[in-house]
Amino acid sequence: MAKERLGVLCSGRGTDLQSIIDAIGRGEVAGEIAVVLADREGAYALTRAREAGIPAACIDRKAYERRELFEEALIAALEEAGVTLVVLAGFMRILTPLFVRHFTGRILNIHPALLPSFPGAHAHRDVLAYGVKVSGCTVHFVDEGTDSGPIILQAAVPVLDGDTEETLGARVLEQEHILYPKAIQLYCEGKLRVEGRHVRIIE
Ligand code: GAR
After folding, report:
1. What pLDDT band is residue 129 in, cutting at 50, 70 and 90?
2. 95-100 long-range contacts, Cβ below 8 Å, gap at least 24?
3. Crossing angle of helices 165-188 and 123-130, rounded to 10°
């Protein structure tokens, strides 16, 4: 079976990206990263990609008047690189149906909370404000909603008294770095079956 060609989209420091690069290096993910794209200049994820010898480019959202034009540029770059699976790794933009339909069933995201609780861009802040005792992370397929697609894997961590967004974020991130490579490997091995909202893992 041909290896999946991953296109990783990032906005920031890229530790989730790094965990995928490292897992591929250890032979734990049977795919290859074809390209890393960031939506803003200065995203440290681009440096990580280049240090690992992976093609990387900035497609700056600010350079495009409309979201659709930005997404068309993303699609063109991903197609140019022969990407078969899009991996959102700290990509802080909502994708429109234009993008999602182009890669239907072939986009994964990791969210730093236990969905369907606390979707959106400020999960840790919302978790702490609400007062829940457990949080975590979720890997899911991307559909046309926000953080609403079928769930592949989740991991839980405790929320501790005195936690800040930083301390909780660091605890969750540790789990993200284990969970995302695992979920990507399940996809690469063809072990995921989506049945409505349910993702079955075929062993
Ligand atoms: C991660 O915690 C990821 O779950 C989150 O951004 C962080 C990226 O960290 N993603 C979202 O909030 C998506 N809405 P990183 O840049 O170090 O990989």
Report:
1. very high
2. 95/71, 95/142, 96/67, 96/68, 96/71, 97/144, 98/68, 98/71, 98/72, 99/71, 99/74, 99/75, 100/142, 100/143, 100/144
3. 120
User: Could you read off the pLDDT of 43-72 as tens digits, one per residue?
Assistant: 999 999 999 999 999 999 999 999 999 999
Residue pLDDT, tens place only, 141-169: 999 999 999 999 999 999 999 999 999 99
Q: How far is the CA of 1 from the centre of ligand 1 (A)?
A: 31
Residue bearing the CA closest to ligand 1, atom 8: 90
Whether the predicted model's global pTM rises above the 0.85 cut:
yes
Residues contacting ligand 1 via CB (< 6 Å): 12-17, 89-90, 92, 110-112, 121, 173, 176
Of 8, 11, 15, which is best to mutate to test ligand 1, by the most ligand atoms within 8 angstroms of its C-beta?
Answer: 15
Q: How many angstroms separate the CA atoms of 31 and 73, rounded?
A: 24
Supply 22's token pair: 């490292």
Atom 5 of ligand 1, nearest CA residue:
90
Does 1 have pLDDT greater than 90?
no
Domains of the chain: 4-201 (3.40.50.170)
